[in-house]
Amino acid sequence: MGKLSEKMWSALNEQVKYEMESGYLYLGMASWLNDQAFPGFAHWMRVQAGEEMHHAQKMYKYIEERGNRVELLPIAAPPKTWDSVEDVMKKSLSLEKLVSGLINKLVDIAAAEKDHATSIFLQWFVTEQVEEEETFRTVLDQLKMVKSTCSAMIYLDNHMAKRGE
Fold first, then answer.
1. Is the pTM of this model over 0.90?
2. Where does the pLDDT of residue 149 fall: very low under 50, low under 70, confident under 90, or very high at 90 and above?
3. Crossing angle (nearest 10°) for helices 85-112 and 39-65
4. DSSP string for 93-134
5. Does residue 165 have a pLDDT over 70?
């Protein structure tokens, strides 16, 4: 099978960066949510950050398994504040949609290069992104339903705290 092509290797390194950047952003969001007295949402977002780091590690390991060296790229610092819990979830959903598009581009590169192993490897990420987008959409829909009603927000925050790690 051999090493990854230069194009595939470069694109996978970029994706490792995006996955780590997503995790870093979600940690920043978790800190802000905690500061806003939403410990359940903060917990939920910390778990999400861990998932993104896991995604980065899966890609990292795959690059090495193919005989290539991982090149870690710089990641951006996340914002420090958001307008609301709903704003956090809207921005998170937008990010997940961006990541889905990036994964799809990786699949396109693998197909164009007839890199069947990478194509198969990436299918897990394609499925995962469908789940990620659906999860954020559901939370956002629930936030829109409660319309910042205090008791409903407290209930939703308690529900978010139950997310397993």
1. yes
2. confident
3. 10
4. HHHHHHHHHHHHHHHHHHHHTT-HHHHHHHHHHHHHHHHHHH
5. no
Report pLDDT digits (tens) over 12-54: 999 999 999 999 999 999 999 999 999 999 999 999 999 999 9
Q: Which of 11, 15, 2, 20 is nearest to 111 (CA)?
A: 11
* Alpha-carbon dihedral sign for residues 46, 142, 126, 109: negative
Whether the pLDDT of residue 1 is over 80: the answer is no
Interatomic CA distance for residues 71 and 64, integer angstroms: 10
CA distance 79 to 153: 23
Q: What is the pLDDT of residue 153?
A: 87
Whether 143 contacts 41, CB under 8 Å: no
Q: Pinpoint the alpha helices (H) of the chain.
A: 6-35, 39-65, 85-112, 116-146, 150-160
Decide: 144 and 86 in contact? Cβ < 8 Å: yes
Cβ-Cβ contacts under 8 Å for 144 (sequence gap 6 or more): 86
